Amino acid sequence: MGFLFGEPKLDRGEFNQCLKYLEEHYKLTTFQEKEADIYNESLTQYMPSLTTDSRSAEEMLKVAERFKKAAHLLLARSKQLVSVPEPAGALHFAWQIVFSDYTAWVDAQYAVYAAIAQGNPPFAEHVQTLFRQQEKSHQKALQEEKKLLKLLRANGLTPSDIQRLTDKAFAAIEAENWQPEETKEA
Asked: Does the predicted TM-score (pTM) go above 0.70?
């Protein structure tokens, strides 16, 4: 990586490696958003009657289990990204922390819904602490993403390139059928 008048300059190979990394990164974040949307829709549906209706509690537990499996799948897939170009290293490390914190938070949520489904009092304070932690790490990761995108824009990345990468990520998730394994009922 060279510098021209103080501006970072990537050679074509580094630039293309960063684009390839971003494509893989966007698969992860797109999957995370998709699963979070499913979870949030269910939360809206079942939350009003969660503590008063055992069926709502059971359904929310199923949703929370799916969310938990999705978080673990996300974390596992993020660890499989081994070809990280040097300019994307800080971004990759920051998102590893996010996905780890996110998984801990989702696991804690699952424990809350399991307690509610069993008629036990949930320990929700821990969930709030973990939520704040994953939000904090998420904000740091977004800052790293801004830095990488700024570098790539300085080297020719366009908004249409970013849109193409996110579209490809969404299509890949759908084509590869990224989803947690469904629980099989006896």
From this structure: yes
Helices within the chain (DSSP H only): 12-46, 54-79, 89-117, 124-154, 159-175
Please determine, for residue 104, whether its predicted confidence score (pLDDT) is greater than 60: yes
Rg for the chain (alpha carbons), in Å?
19
For the segment 146-161, what is each residue's pLDDT rounded down to a tens digit?
A: 999 999 999 999 999 9
Q: How many of the other CB atoms lie within 10 Å of CB of 54?
A: 13
- Counting other chains too, the contacts that 154-160 makes at CB distance below 8 Å and 24 or more residues apart are 154/7, 154/8, 154/9, 155/8, 155/9, 155/10, 155/15, 156/15, 157/15, 157/19
Q: Which two tokens stand for residue 9?
A: 């300059």
Indicate if the pLDDT at residue 97 is higher than 80: yes
Q: Would you state the structure tokens that stand for residue 55, as one six-digit string?
A: 């069926």
What would the two tokens of residue 85 be?
């170009």
What is Dmax (Cα atoms) for the chain? 67
Residue at 52: amino acid letter: T
CB atoms within 10 A of CB 100: 17
